Each structure stands twice: as C-alpha cells, then as structure tokens.
Amino acid sequence: MAEQPKKNFKVNRRRFVKTSTLFIVGAAAALGTGAVPILRSNEKRLRPPGALEENHFLASCIKCGQCLQVCPPKVIKLDGLMGGFSVGTPYITPREGGCILCSGLPCVLACPTGSLDHGISLGKEAEMGLAVLSKPRQCLSILGVNDLVFRLEKIQSSGNLVPDENLTDILQRLVEKLDDKETATWKEKFGLQEVTVKEVPRVLAKMNRENFDWLLSFTKDSEQAKVGCRICLEDCPIKDENPISFHKIKNEDLGKDVFVPTVEKTCVGCGVCEERCPTEEASITIVPRMKWKGNA
C-alpha cells in the first residue's frame, strides 16, 4: 500500500489568536470567578503610536500583526497567552527597544481598523505614555557624571575590551563632539587623516589595553566630559520639541552644580530614553498611557 502523503499543517496567526482568546474566555467560564484575573494582564502595556483608549483598542484590534511587520526597528511585539484579552495585540518593551517614531508612522498607516488612530501622522502626536525619573538617586545627570566616561569605566571594570556595538557607539558619540585641539590629538594618536564616524572602525582595530586606557583618560579630560549625561534628550526622536529640560541645582554632597532632568508636556512616552539610559537599571522609565499634569 502506498504511503499516504503527510498533510502540511500551517498555523494561521489570526486563527491561532482567535482560538487562544476563546480558550481563555472558555477557561474563565468553566472555572468561575477564580479564573477572572487571567483575562487581563497585570502589567500595563506600552502600545504603538496612536493606540486608542485601552478598552477601545482591545475591542478594535484584530491581532493581524501588520504594525509589527512594517516596524523598521522591529520593536513591536505581540502579546502572549498570559496577556489575557490582550493576547495577540501589539506592545513595546522600552528597555529592550523604544519606538523611534518613524517618519509617517508606518505602523499607524498599516493598521486596518484604526486601532492605531489614522488621525495622527507625526511622532509628536503619538501620546503613548510619559517618561518619569523613577530612580533619581542613580541618574548620571544629577550625579554630574558624563555618560561616555561612565560607559568606558564600566567596560574597564568588566575587563572586556572586545570592540562591540557598545564601544562603537561610544566612539561615534565622542568623535562627533571633539574640538579642534582634541581632533588633532586624536589624529596623531591613531594616525588618521581625518576624524569622522567613518574612521571609528580603524580606531577599534587598534584597540588594546594600552590604547583603551589612553582613550579613557582622553575622554575624562575632554570638553564634553564636563557636561553630565543628557542622553535621554540627545537620543529622543522628537528632541526638537524639548520633551526633557535640565535645571541646574547645587549638589551639596558633590559640592558642585548639577542638572536635574525634567519631563515636559511634549513628551509622548516613546521609550527611547528608557532604552538608552546607561545606568544598570534605567533611571528614567515610561509609564504607559500616563498624561502630563504639570511639573510637581
């Protein structure tokens, strides 16, 4: 007897999501009120730009995943079974990757139901949430610590001098702000005709313990090291809207002036600040759906 050909079972995303949702609702009905907590996730999700009010969003989102597919930085995820009614809906985890508010907001354009409001087209209109300075005691700006120096010292303490993405990013940020004197020193040290971001790979190729120690010392003495960390504003995709301001205060413990970051009304909670914050746990974090109510 000839062997029967095996059927090719393919999982349809929409069918899977619908089936999963029906399973959750059915389980709640079967198990009674004790199962109700699984219907809603305990964690507020950061939704993509333009998401409707949460209940309306959950009711209108068809879990198609189109927003995820067109997201250039690939930061949008789909919620799993533990999301309850939120299963299959899109969300963003800021610490893993914030929304860069792409030009034209392709995720919004791709949404077939308007769960992501088609009435917005600019990043400054996103209203995803709000950034908060959740750990001010470790904020580098308040401590008067430069982010490049902090990151280089962290590499030094780890003993890992591998020229990875982190070190590449540090060098790129450093060379973009060198003054004329610092540029001349950099050229002489690494034998460069010019000092640009394009030349960073050549510098990385020469990176050893001696050159790294020189780099750390050079960075500490640079003009930009005199300014505390401001990466939350510098990397913000709508920084021209001034979503974060810095106010000078006297740090009595340090005996010097430092700057406190203050979230302004123009913040839309995209999450890039949380992603890029260099402290071990992000000093600035996003509260989804939160609205600006004025500075305390």
Outline of this structure?
The chain is of the alpha+beta class and 296 residues long. It contains 12 helices and 6 strands.
State the main characteristics:
296 residues, alpha+beta, 3 domains, 12 helices, disordered N terminus, 4Fe-4S ferredoxin-type domain-containing protein, RLI1, iron-sulfur
What does this structure look like?
- The N and C termini lie far apart (80 Å).
- With 296 residues, the chain is α+β, with helices and mostly antiparallel strands.
- Mean pLDDT is 87; it is low at 1-11 and 16-39.
- The radius of gyration is 24 Å and the shape is globular.
- The chain has a two-stranded antiparallel sheet with strand order 1-2. The chain has a two-stranded antiparallel ribbon with strand order 3-6. It has a two-stranded antiparallel sheet with strand order 4-5.
- It has helices at 13-31, 54-60, 66-70, 106-110, 140-143, 147-158, 165-175, 180-190, 200-205, 209-221, 231-234, 272-276, and strands at 76-78, 90-92, 129-133, 244-251, 256-263, 284-288.
- The chain has twelve helices and six strands.
- Strand 4 and strand 5 (256-263) form a beta hairpin.
- It has three domains: 13-127, no CATH class; 132-144 and 229-288; 147-226, no CATH class.
- 34% of the residues lie in helices and 11% in strands.
